[in-house]
Amino acid sequence: MKLKVGIYWGAACGGCDVAILDTHEKLLDIAAKMDIYLWPIALDFKYDDVKKMEDGYLDAAIYSGAIRNSENEEIAILLRKKSKVMIALGACAHLGGIPGLANFYTRDEMLKRIYIDSESTINEEGVIPLESWNVKEGELDLPRFYNTVKTLDQVVDVEYYIPGCPPVPLQIYSALSLIWDDMLPPVGSVIGAGDKALCESCPRVKEEKTISEFKRIQQVLPDPEKCFLEQGLVCLGAATRSGCGARCIKSGVPCRGCYGPLDDVPDLGIKMLSAIASVLEPKEEKEIDDVLDTIVDPLRTFHRFSMPASILRRKKE
Amino acid sequence: MEFEPKLVGFLCNWCSYTGADLAGTARISYAPNLRAIRVMCSGRIDPTFIIKALYEGADGVLIAGCHPGDCHYQEGNYKALRRYKLLKRILPEYGVEPERVHLEWVAASEGEKFAKVVNEFTDKIKKLGPLNMKQSIFDSMKEDIVVHESAGEEKGGEADEA
């Protein structure tokens, strides 16, 4: 019997859905094994179709995107009720992802920046979106824009995580095949990824690391064979889970950490801070400061994908 | 009642913990606010420990290690210094005053210095006031609570424990 699956996107760019399509001819295998009951980006189903299902009707719900507003949360709760297995697909559902960087600001700061202060905006009356508005036909609603971006598992129970921004298409396929082959690992596992740091599978030559200056990728022509970190380029491979096949590294770009932390590491960004700071060359306070001055925006760089899933989750107000 | 800060101290086994011990055996009295945790080396202190301590209710964290050049493991205290320096830079991004984390070199013979450091640090945090990290983060999620009638309430809507 074919599996019944719902695919949904919360606060996402759609890249995870495209990654499912990027399985190319394997997509035919997926279609042969699974019937899709919801997929807003690709197929025309309505929320009401899902609401009418019995609880636990779907075999799996695949949710990409973070929880940014009340609609994201509502559908996450709905799909959780209707599904036997909940899968977080991609860095946003897994860790909060790029939308999670908003946790360095408050809701009011975000709305002000976007609708009033941004350089391309003229909004003299200071109009910002309201949650409800009365028109002659009745009241119109918008979802509530949250103060804090959350990961999927902060609003519903999640069985499995497929990391990546976006996940490697073949890893999605192999993770899905675990479902139809009935080979799923213990609940809570990260599937479609490795269990060692990316440095383990990085093809570059690694030697003793002593860094005396950090540079950004646009400022240098990196040596194609040598470890990025040793060349003074911030690379998050040391604290990031493997499984991506070092695709950025092989394209000449340092790791940005989208596969998230390893098992039992509660905070990728702070772990990376620890790793980077420990391999600096200088020992004197003044010289250490000079090197640290060359790291641009360290916390957002280390927490590019993982702020909502970190220990502190957001900025204190 | 006067605010009594909760302070966590990570003390290296070879110098600073011994220094704290000396303050005790010499019967020097100092502020009782510091909860000492012995670690083998200041280089063992993962910044995750410090962030976790602040999240779980510490108002300040003290790191104490051997003086530069005196590390039992040669380089551990330099690593601690670099991590401390970088951590201080990022704390304001979390809305935390960087003064809440403090590093000091305390040798095994410096019992008096240890007492002085703890007293000064306690005074400094008293002036800064309580941190309340966990509570303030949960409070800021309160306006994110929405009742989802159509979906039926389940786990959502709460600023639940991570």
Keywords:
heterodimer; A: alpha/beta; 5-stranded parallel beta sheet; two-stranded antiparallel ribbon; 15% strand; B: 162 residues; alpha/beta; Rossmann fold; 4-stranded parallel beta sheet; 5 helices; 14% strand; disordered C terminus
Summarize the structure in short:
With 317 residues, chain A is α/β, with parallel strands linked by helices.
Give a structural overview.
The complex is a heterodimer of chains A (317) and B (162). Chain A has 317 residues and is of the alpha/beta class. Chain A folds into three domains: 3-99 and 147-180, Rossmann fold (3-Layer(aba) Sandwich), CATH 3.40.50; 106-145, no CATH class; 198-309, no CATH class. Chain A has helices at 15-21, 26-33, 47-51, 70-82, 90-95, 107-117, 169-180, 198-201, 247-250, 268-278, 285-292, 298-302; strands at residues 3-9, 34-38, 58-64, 67-69, 83-89, 132-135, 138-141, 145-150, 160-162. In chain A, strands 2-1-3-5-9 form a five-stranded parallel beta sheet, sandwiched between helices. In chain A, strands 4-8 form a two-stranded antiparallel sheet. In chain A, helix 2 (26-33) runs parallel beside helix 7 (169-180). Chain A is globular and about 65 Å long. With 162 residues, chain B is an alpha/beta fold. Chain B has a four-stranded parallel beta sheet with strand order 2-1-3-4, sandwiched between helices. In chain B, helix 1 links the parallel strand 1 (7-12) and strand 2 (34-39). Mean pLDDT of chain B is 91; it is low at 154-162. The chains are: A alpha/beta (317), B alpha/beta (162). At the A-B interface, helix 4, strand 8, helix 10, helix 11 and helix 12 of A face helix 2, helix 3 and helix 5 of B.
